[in-house]
Amino acid sequence: MLTLQINGKSVEVDVDPDTPLLWVLRDVLGMTGTKYGCGIAECGVCTVHVDGSPVRSCSLPVGLIGSQKVITTIEGLQADPVAAAVRKAWLDIDVVQCGYCQPGQIMAAIALLKKIPNPTDEQIEADMSGNLCRCGTYMRIRAAIRNVAAAQGVNP
Amino acid sequence: MTPKRVFPPAIRRRHVLGGAGAFVLAAILPAGRSRGAGMLVEDATASFAPNAYIRIGSDNVITMILPNIEMGQGIYTSSVMLMAEELGIDPQSVRIEAAPPGGGAEITGGSTSSMTEWMPLRQAGATARTMLQQAAAARWSCAPDACVALDGYITGPAGQRLSYGELAADAAKLPVPKNVALKTPAQFRLIGRPMHRLDSQVKVDGQATFGIDVQVPGQKVGAVAACPVIGGHVGHVDTQAALKIRGVVAVLQIDDAVCVVADHYWAARKGLAALDVQWVEGPNAAVDTQAIYRQLEGGLSGPAILADHHGDARQAITHAHGRYSAIYRQPLLAHATMEPINCTIHVRPDGCDIWTGTQVAERARDTTAEVTGLPKDKIKLHSQYIGGGFGRRLEHEYVTQAARFGRQVSYPLKIIWSREEDITRDRFRPAYLDHLEAGLDERGYITGLTHRIVGPAVVARWEPSGLSANGYDDDLSVGTVITPYTYPAYRLEFARREPPGVITAWWRGVGGTRGLFVVEGFIDELARRADIDPVAYRREMVRNNPRALAVLERAARESGWGTPLPPNCGRGVALQFAFGSYLATVVEVEMPALHDVRIRRVTCAVDCGQVINPDQIIAQIEGGLIFGFSAALYNEITLEKGRVQQDNFHTWRVMRMNEAPKRIDVHLIESTESPGGIGETGTAAAAPALANAMAAVQKRRYRILPLLSALNQPSGHEKEQQG
Amino acid sequence: MTMTERGLGRITGMLFTLLASTGIHPAHAAGASDGQYLTRAADCEVCHTRPGGAPFAGGRAFAIPGMGVIYSPNITADRQAGIGTWTDDQFVKAVRDGVSPGWKHLYPAMPYRDYAYMTPDEVKAIRAYLATLPTSSARPPANTLKFPFSIRAAMIFWNLVNGPTSSHPDDPGHTPSWNRGRYLVEGPGHCAECHSPRTITMGVSASNAYAGADVGGWRAYNITSSKTDGIGAWSADDLATYLSTGHADGHGSASGDMGDVVSHSLRYLTRQDIDAMVEYLRGIPARSSTDGAPLVVDQPTAAHDPADSHGAMLYAGACVGCHLPDGSGRQNPVASIAGARTTLGAANGQNLLQVLTHGSVLQTATGTASMPAFHGGYSDQDVADIANFVMHHFARSSTKVTAVDVAKAKAGSTPE
Ligand code: FES
Ligand code: FES
C-alpha cells in the first residue's frame, strides 16, 4: 500500500512501486482528465503538479513520490485563482480543438504563470515546448498565456 | 478524403414523432447519405428516432442530435449554429448528442461536413420553428406568420408568449410542412458571426470523455501487440512469465496480434513486455523503404491510366518554345493523433456495446456484427470525443481487433495501443512519385502540361466501388485536375502501384496535400525559370478566375509580398482550390542554416464560401498549417526488414511551440457561395508554400518531402531538369 | 573502433521490463544465494546475455579493436549448448585462469585475471547458482576474429606478456574494509577492464591504472582520486549513492555500460560492500588524464546561451520533458544532468553523443529509467546542435561536435 496526497485528499493505492502515477490516476483512481500520449515524457499530455511543479505523470513511478508530496491534477484546481484565469483565457479565444492535449497544456501553463506571472514569449516557449499539440493550437496557447498575464494586471 | 462521397444534400422525407412530451423532428436522409455516430449522451429516450436532429422536451430542454463526430474541427458548434439559427434559440443552451449509426455510408471526413450539412440542418431548424409557430397560431387563433419565434419563445400578435417546451406536445401532432422558408443571409443572427465552441468548457476542465477515458463497470484493460510485419502472424506464445505479473488476468490471441489483459494498463504493459511471442513474419519481412521507392520508380515509364485530359498536351510540349520537367517525391506518413488508438467493447451472448472514437461508426458496427455473429441491431456504438482524427479514424480495424479479443472474454475490455503500437501499426498516407512536364511559350507560360502520378489508389481498399471504371482514384484529382488554373492542353496519367509491406490510408487530405505540393512547387519552378515573380506568374494564370485572383491579391498584399527581407529570409506562395475553398498562402521563412528553418510569418487569404463560424475557420487553418508544416519538414515513415522504424515522438517528430510560426494571419473573404471544406486546406497549403519559401532563400529546389531530408541537400541527386 | 561491441547489446527502444525487487543480500551468505550475490558482483549476466535473449545464454557481441568480433558463450547448465557437462574444477579454471575444457584459451574479453581474486570455492558458488537457473539451448554465433587472433593458442602468448593470474592475499597495512573494497573493485567488479587504459598488447595498464579509457565509443571515466580529473572531489556519500543507484545529484547518471553495471550488479550489493569499494576507490593514487577537460559547473542561466539558438530550441522541445530547462530532472532524479561531468565532460563529447544516439537504460528500485535514442526524426546536425548546447549550457564546455561525429557515434566509433 502506498499513500499519496492527491487534490487535497490522502489516498491509498495497492500497486507496484514502478507503476507510473498516470496509470494510478487513470485506471486505479478513475481520474481520466490526465491523458496518455507517449508514455516517455515526450508530449506532456500527462502533466500534473507535484508540489506545484509540472511533471510528466507517465514517467513518474509512484514509488518515487512518497506520502508527503502534494499531487494536483486537472480535476483538482477548481478553486485555484490562477487556474481559473487560465481556463477563462482558454475559453475567451477558443484555444481547444480536439482538446486531448489541453489538460496537459493547461497544467503546464498554470505552473508557468505561478512561477512567472508575466512571462515573455521566450519564457513561454521554454516551458511550453515540451507539450505537443497535434491540432496545432500553439498560437492560441501562447496568446492565452499572454492574456492571463495582461488580465492580472502584471506590469510587463 | 475522397470528394466522391460529397453528395448533394437533400431531404427526401421528414416526419415527426411525438411521445413522452418530446417533440422530435426527424429528417430522414436519402439512403447512402444518412449518417450518425453514436450517442454522446447516454440517456436518449425511448422515443428517440434514428436520424432525428432536434428534440424539444416539455421541460424546455432542447437536444440536438448531431450527424458528424467532433474531433477538434468544431463541427458540433457549427452544426448547432445552423439549426439554432433557424429555430431561433441560443446555441449555448442546447444539449448535444451524437447520432447513432444509421443506414448507408456514413463518414465524418474529407472536409465535407460544412458542405453537406449546410442545407439539411438549417431545414431541420426551420421546420421545427414553423411547426412551433403553427402550434402557437392554433392556440391563439391567429395566422402562423403573425407568430414570432425568438430565443426559445413564440410571441403572438397580442404579445402572448409561450415557450417552445410548452408548445412541443402540440407541435408534435402537426403534419410536417413540405417547404419551409429559410432565413436570408441578411437575417442571420448567428451564421457568419464568431461563436465560442460548445465543447470548450468540458475540455478545459478535463471532463470531456474521449474514447480512452471510457470507464465501464467491471472493465479490464488490454495492452496489444500486433505482428510488427504486415501479413505476419503469431507463432509460439509462452504466457508463463506474463501471467505471473501482478494484475494480469489473461493473455488473448488472434491470428496476428496478442493482448495482455490486466486490472490496469500498466500491469498489462508489464505483462506484454514479459510475454514471449515468436512472430511468423512472412514475406514482407524483406520489405524496406528502398523497395517501395524502387517500385514507384518503375511506374514513371510504361503504361498508365489516362485520368484526365483536354487538348493534346504531348503535341503541345513537343512543339513548345521551351520545355521543363521535374520529379517530385513524397513519403509514407503516419497520423500520430494525440489520443492513441483505443476501443472499449463488451461482447455478450445477446448483444454488444462499443465505446470508441470513430469517423465511420456504421462500418465499425457492421464488422463487429460479423466478428461476433450478433445482429447489427444488437450492437450499440457509443461515439466518444476523438482526440484527433486526421483521417486515422476513417479506419476501424482497431474496433474489429477489439471485437476479436473482446469476444473471448465476458467482461468489458478496453484495448489501448501504446504510442509505439499506434505509430508502427498505423495505416499510412502513401508515398508517391510525380513526374511533370510542361511545354512553355516564349514568356515561360504553360502551353501544355503532362503529369504522371505513381502511387496507390487509397480508395481501392477503403471503398472499392469508389474506384473509377478505368482504375483511377478520383481523390488524386484534388490539387491536380481540381485547380484554380486552366491549361491550354493537359494530360493526367496514373500509374497505380500498391506498395508491399504497408497498408495505405487517408490522412489529413491525401489528394489535396500530395497534389498541391507537386503542382504549386512546379508552378513556382516555372515562374523562377521565366524570371517572373511567383505571385505575378500565378496572377497571370488565374486572371479569369475572380475568386482565385481575389485570394491571391489579398494574401500578397497582407503579407507584404515583394517588400525587402533580412538576410537568410524568403517568401513562398501557394494558391489552391481544394475541398470547395480557395486559399492563397504566403510563408515567410528564415534559414540561419540549411537544417534550421524558422517560420516567421504565415499569411492566408481564404474564400470558403458562406462562413458559419469565422473564428473556427481561422483555427482550422492555423492548426492545419502547423500539422502540414510538421509533416513537410520532418516526417517520413521508413521500413527496414518490414518493420516501421518510427515509434514515438523522438523518431516521429511533431512541430513544437517554439518551432511553430511566430504569427499566422488568416483573412476571410466575404462570400455568399455555399460553404467549402476547411479542415484540410491549411494542411494542403503548408508544404508547397514552405518549400517555395525555402527555395527562395536557398536559390534551389525542394522536390522531396520531408524538406529537411538529406536528399534535398545541395549534394542530393535531384537536379533541375531543363529542356 | 568500427563497431559498438556493447552498443549491439544496448536496447534503444523503450523498455517496459522491470526488475522485481532490490532485495537486500547479506555479504557472505552460503550456498546458491551467496552464488547469486557473487554472480551479480561479478556482473556475469550482462556479458553473457544477448539483447532480448535468455539470461546467461550468451551471444552478446564484443568487437575487439583490430581483432574482430567475439560472442560470449552460453553459460547456462544446458548440456549441449551450455556448460552443463563441465566439472566444477573446469569451471573454476575457466573463470580464474581463462582456460576452458579442451585447453581452449579464453579471449581476454573474459576478465579472468580479475576473477582470480575470487577463491575457487567462491567460483564454485557461482557455478552452483547458475545451475539453479533455467537452461537455454541457444548457441552464440561463431567468432569472427582476424588472424592471428583467430588462433586461440595465441592467447598463451598474451597471457605470458600480460601476466599470469594469481591470488591476492589481504594487505595487513589496510583496514579490512579497504581490503574488501580492493577485492570487489579489482576482483569480481573488474572495474579496471574499462577504466584503465590498455597497453599495446591490449592488457590493462598498471602504471596508469584507472586513469580512464575508451571503450566501445564511450569514455570510461578517470576514477582515480585526482580532484580535477578523477573522482577526488566527490564525497564518499555521493560516490556510494552513484554506485548503488546509478545517480548522484550534481554528478549525473550512469549510462551506457556503467548503466548496465549498476542495473545488473552494483545495485544489488550491500551498503557495506559499496562503502568498502568507495574506500578503496578513494585511495587510488591520483593520475591525470586527458579525457575530461576540467569543468566549471555552475548554475546555467539564460545569459549563457541565447534561447533561440537551434540547439537551445531543440532542447526546449525534445529534452525538457525529462531534464527541465535547468537540467535538474523533472520527474525522476535520474534525469538530472546538471554537473554530469562524465557525460558532458569528456573532451570530445563522446559520451554525450553515445547517450543521444544509442539511448540509455538504468534499472532502478522503481522501474526502468530510459533515455530514448535520437537515431531518427532529428538529423545528425540537429543532434550535434543539441549536444553543443547542452555541453556549453550545463558544463561551460567549449567542445564542439559535428554532424560527422554524430554519424560516427551512431556507427559506434569515437569522434576524433
Ligand atoms: S504521456 Fe507523458 S509526456 Fe507523453
Ligand atoms: S487540441 Fe488536439 S492535440 Fe491539442
TrEMBL record, chain A:
Residues annotated as domain 2Fe-2S ferredoxin-type: 1-77
GO MF annotations, alphabetized: 2 iron, 2 sulfur cluster binding; metal ion binding; oxidoreductase activity
Domain of life: Bacteria
Alphabetically ordered keywords of this record: 2Fe-2S, Iron, Iron-sulfur, Metal-binding, Oxidoreductase
Pfam family, one: Fer2_2
Classification via InterPro entries: 2Fe-2S-bd (IPR002888), 2Fe-2S-bd_dom_sf (IPR036884), 2Fe-2S_ferredoxin-like_sf (IPR036010), 2Fe-2S_ferredoxin-type (IPR001041), 2Fe2S_fd_BS (IPR006058), Beta-grasp_dom_sf (IPR012675), Diverse_Oxidoreductases (IPR051452)
Keyword Metal-binding: yes
Keyword presence, Oxidoreductase: yes
Protein name according to UniProt: Membrane-bound aldehyde dehydrogenase small subunit
Organism: Komagataeibacter diospyri
UniProtKB/TrEMBL annotation, chain B:
Single annotated GO MF: oxidoreductase activity
InterPro entries (alphabetical): Ald_Oxase/Xan_DH_a/b, AldOxase/xan_DH_MoCoBD1, AldOxase/xan_DH_MoCoBD2, AldOxase/xan_DH_Mopterin-bd_sf, N-heterocyclic_Hydroxylase, OxRdtase_Mopterin-bd_su_IorB, TAT_signal
Domain Aldehyde oxidase/xanthine dehydrogenase a/b hammerhead, first and last residues per copy: 205-283
Xref: SUPFAM superfamilies: Molybdenum cofactor-binding domain (SSF56003)
Record-annotated membrane-spanning stretches: none
The protein's name: Membrane-bound aldehyde dehydrogenase large subunit
Provenance organism: Komagataeibacter diospyri
Gene field: aldL
UniProtKB/TrEMBL annotation, chain C:
Coiled-coil boundaries: none
Cofactor: heme c
Residues annotated to bind heme c 2: 191, 194-195
Binding residues annotated for heme c 3, in chain numbering: 319, 322-323
Record flagged with keyword tRNA-binding: no
Residues the record lists as binding heme c 1: 44, 47-48
Name of encoding gene: aldC
A GO CC annotation given for this chain: plasma membrane
Transmembrane segment boundaries: none
InterPro entries: Cyt_c-like_dom, Cyt_c-like_dom_sf, Cyt_C_IC, Cytochrome_c-type_DH, Membr-bd_ADH_cyt_c
PROSITE patterns named in the record: CYTC (PS51007)
Chief location bin: membrane
GO molecular function annotation: electron transfer activity; heme binding; iron ion binding; oxidoreductase activity, acting on CH-OH group of donors
Protein name: Membrane-bound aldehyde dehydrogenase cytochrome c subunit
Annotated signal sequence range: 1-29
Cofactor note: Binds 3 heme c groups covalently per subunit.
Pfam families: Cytochrome_CBB3 (PF13442)
SUPFAM superfamilies to which the protein is assigned, alphabetical: Cytochrome c
Domain named Cytochrome c: residues: 30-134, 176-285, 306-394
Subcellular location: Cell membrane
Lineage: Bacteria, Pseudomonadati, Pseudomonadota, Alphaproteobacteria, Acetobacterales
Keywords of this entry: Cell membrane, Electron transport, Heme, Iron, Membrane, Metal-binding, Repeat, Respiratory chain, Signal, Transport
